[in-house]
Each structure stands twice: as structure tokens, then as C-alpha cells.
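Q: Sequence in, structure out?
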Amino acid sequence: MTALLRLVLFDVDGTLVDSQASIVSAMTASFQALSLPVPDRAAILSIVGLSLPIAIARLAPDQSQATQSRLVEGYKEAYHAHRLEMGAASSPLYPGAREVIGSLQAVPEILLGVATGKSQRGLDALLEAHGLDSVFVTRQVADHHPSKPHPSMIETALFETGVSAGDAVMIGDTSFDMEMARAAGVAGIGVGWGYHDRSQLSAASAVIDRFEQLPGVLTAVWG
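A: Exactly. Output:
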């Protein structure tokens, strides 16, 4: 009898890695390069998870499309430079992430994937830096999908893995992740250590405060 496959999808920034220093630094550099007022830290972190053009449009709604495009390119350049300078230290894994990922990967019925607002280049570099480049069987990135909370990333991951929506979960730190999960018909598990306040994760089936809680919550969600 064929074992029932389950899919665990992770957001990246604010869920697997703490990249806020890199994000705030790159966004600050991008705005300063055009002599524009820099959004405050809270505003910058509030858009983490959105595709970059959407994020910039929210942070600079009064700027022209041409200026927003320049901000996008400036952010990409600054973020890339910061990553080259700092390596894996620019986005450290949250405590317990590596151990829990390893334990889930060891279960034959569980497939692991990523659904992130990062670019393909950014995600691949990050996973390689942390030695996780062979872990995730499906990688959904901003290059190929509408921004969260559109369900396209999750729907494509389900298609690629052959897993049904009822046997999948989306783990993330933002309301965008939880709304995307709900739109795709999968359970959303929020994390309390990320960039959106816990109160914004109302669409989640459960919220965890430590990575070590995840296996138990997965068991409860899947029954």
C-alpha cells in the first residue's frame, strides 16, 4: 500500500531565517540612494513576504512607477551586496530550525517545500549558505508567481508534489502567509517569532512560539 504523502511548506524570511537586518539595511540604502525619506523599521518589516514590487509600492505609494522600479533595483543590489559581505550570517536560522527540519526530512511520508517572496537567486544562495540546498523538493519564489496572499505558490507546490490540499500545511510569520494558505485550502500554522504581530495571524489553524513545537502541532492538524 502506498504511504500517504504530506507536504510541509515554509515561508523563509521571518520563519526559517531572521533576515530583518539585511532587509532593513537594503531598503534603507535603496531609498537613500534616491534621496527619498526612508520608511521606519516597522513599516519595512510589515511588508516582508510580499513580492518586492508590491512591497515597494506599499512603502512609496506616492512615487511614480519609474521611481518605484528604481527602488526595486536598488534594493536588489544592496541586498545582494550585503549577502556577499556577510554570508550566512546575514540571515541566520532561527533556533531549532535546522533540527526540526532534519527530523521532518527523516520521515519518508513528509515532503518539505518553500513558498517565499524571495527571488530564485536569493533563495538558492540562502539555502546553499546554510547547507539546505538538497532539503526542499519544491521551491516557489516571487519570480514565477503573483505576490502573496494569492494562492499560486501553494497550488503549484501541491501540483508538483502530487499532495492534496488537506494533506499540506503552510508555515509562516505573516498574515500574507496565513491568507495564502486559506485561499489555497490548506492549514496555516503561524509562528510567533517573525515580523507580524501574533494578533495578525488570526487565519492560522495554530500558532507556535518555538520550532520544537512544530512536530506536535503537525500531528494535531493532520489528526
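The mean pLDDT is 94.
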